[in-house]
Design brief:
six-stranded parallel beta sheet; alpha/beta; globular; single chain; about 10% strand
Length: about 525
């Protein structure tokens, strides 16, 4: 082989190594995927579309490992509202906001360790979690309950606990969304958010959890597609050398965070990047800025797309737009993390004992335990002792547009859990369109008619962000002041109703815990 041919082969393998595509398929990986893993691609991402059951998923990842034993198998499994393992039924673990509301870092560590154990058992080696964003803007449409809270110190200690627990199971953590997506009112899946804060605020607030996570040994960090003019007025964080190289990578002595691990991009096809730069050019700019692994595929990738992006990176090197050393460094960091996960998996299996558990008290039930502890139950003004319903209730669910990160498919609410505990429970689901057609008073009248004489349970999600939902709830409570209200988002609005239950998230276990309160199986007072 000539030197030129060897250099070309190395370049194409490096370009493949930095791409992290997703794919369609459940029982069998598409033929192109193992082929490109053998050609140099190092990682792949999984989503709910790849999951039928845990047994099926373990078989699918085993196929990938046959092509490349140290393949990085990543998943976006935050627990709570964002779940892929349990996309069809809802998560067995509450999300960050519930854990932050309890504020017991050992509980957070135990939850993350058990989640990590389950991920490791199905062959996942890297989790794109936790979110270290501080939810400072209550209007935030995409972070919300994915955040531990709005206090930097609280978010930092729970981010550290989560990273520690997850990585104890041999699964690499990915702390996101750097330098912080909490202070936005725009969803970067749909448009480019702008964060107008100064550098002092950035360092004293947004960066606090990231600094703590890096000190705790987080193996990777994910960039945010946000514009932060205090650092770069032109390019979003994922494409900004000032954000990734000048801040995240720069040594602490130079005012940076000194991070030496792997930098992931958020999904490169999100509109905050793709609408302006396109997929190919966005991929090149991201690696040039400091990204090591480019996430591709909120929608499934195919071989043509992967090879097109590979070739775009190779052309950029040859055109002088992307330094060859930068591409090689990125590829080496991906390979290094792949080696780390392979070794960490072996160590976790050796340390966990015969049942394979990663540790934590009552690990099998830790999710429901955490969800119960996260409940905040508030009786209505002047309400006497709570009396559980003697007959099956009517559950009116006022549902917002789904969070882009969570998707539309995961069920949520308390109706299904109440029906298990109180057979005969009926549920009706209503959205903004129902209010727009006839007005909120007409919607409330329809719900009251549907409820009839049954006890009424009203389920809302981030009611403070949705005027139609707030108006409908006000009308329902005016007519039925003793109704039970369950808030399954961020509880910013004042409690209303005869009994108000804040779950701090919409995971299945959060619905189960709320149903236990409604039926009297859990006390309304601690």
């Amino acid at each position: 082989m000539t030197i030129a041919a060897h250099t070309s082969d190395t370049l194409t393998r490096d370009a493949l190594a930095v791409l992290q595509p997703t794919f369609a398929g459940t029982t069998t990986a598409p033929a192109w995927l193992p082929r490109q893993l053998r050609n140099g691609m190092t990682g792949v991402g999984l989503f709910g579309r790849n999951v039928v059951s845990l047994e099926q998923l373990a078989g699918l990842t085993a196929q990938l490992r046959q092509a490349r034993p140290d393949v990085l198998v990543a998943i976006d499994e935050e627990g709570g509202d964002v779940t892929r393992l349990e996309v069809h039924g809802g998560s067995s673990f509450p999300g960050n906001h519930a854990l932050g509301s309890v504020d017991d870092p050992e509980l957070t560590r135990a939850v993350a360790a058990e989640l990590g154990r389950r991920l490791a058992a199905v062959g996942v080696t890297l989790n794109w979690a936790p979110s270290a964003d501080i939810n400072t803007d209550p209007r935030n449409p995409v972070i919300g309950v994915r955040s531990f809270g709005d206090d930097p110190a609280l978010v930092a200690r729970h981010t550290v606990a989560y990273v520690t627990g997850l990585q104890s199971a041999g699964v690499a953590a990915c702390v996101k969304h750097f330098p912080g997506h909490g202070n936005t009112s725009v969803d970067s899946h749909l448009a480019l958010p702008r964060v107008d804060i100064d550098l002092d605020t950035l360092h004293s607030r947004e960066l606090v959890p990231f600094k703590a996570a890096i000190a705790a040994g987080a193996r990777s960090v994910m960039s945010a597609h946000i514009l932060l003019p205090a650092l770069d007025a032109d390019r979003p964080g994922t494409l900004s050398p000032a954000v990734l190289t000048g801040l995240l990578r720069a040594p602490v002595s130079a005012g940076g965070l000194g991070f030496e691990g792997l930098i992931f991009s958020d999904a490169i096809e999100m509109r905050a990047v793709a609408d302006t730069y396109g997929l190919d050019h966005g991929c090149v700019l991201a690696v040039a800025a400091g990204v090591d692994a480019v996430c591709v595929g909120g929608t499934p990738s195919d071989e043509a797309e992967v090879l097109r992006l590979r070739d775009a990176l190779v052309r950029a090197v040859r055109a002088g737009e992307l330094a060859e050393d930068r591409l090689h460094d990125a590829a080496e960091r991906v390979r290094a993390l792949a080696r780390w996960t392979a070794e960490a998996r072996r160590k976790a299996r050796n340390d966990s004992g015969a049942d394979g558990r990663a540790g934590g008290p009552a690990a099998g039930d830790i999710g429901l335990t955490a969800a119960r502890r996260a409940l905040r139950v508030t009786p209505g003004p002047g309400a006497g002792p709570y009396e559980p319903p003697a007959v099956a209730p009517y559950v009116a669910v006022l549902t917002p547009v789904a969070n882009s990160a969570a998707g539309e498919d995961t069920p949520w609410g308390v109706g299904a859990e109440l029906a298990r505990l109180l057979p005969g429970t009926r549920t009706g689901t209503f959205a903004r369109g129902d209010a727009d057609r006839g007005g909120t008073d007409a919607l409330a009248a329809h719900l009251l008619d549907a409820a009839g004489d049954r006890p009424l349970v009203v389920v809302v999600r981030d009611v403070h962000r949705h005027p139609w939902m707030a108006a409908a709830l006000d009308a329902l409570i005016a007519a039925r002041p003793g109704a039970t209200v369950v808030e399954m988002g961020v509880p910013h609005a004042p409690p209303v109703g005869g009994l108000h239950i804040a779950t701090h998230g919409a995971a299945r276990v959060c619905g189960r815990a709320a149903a236990e309160v409604i039926t009297g199986q859990l006390p309304t007072q601690p």
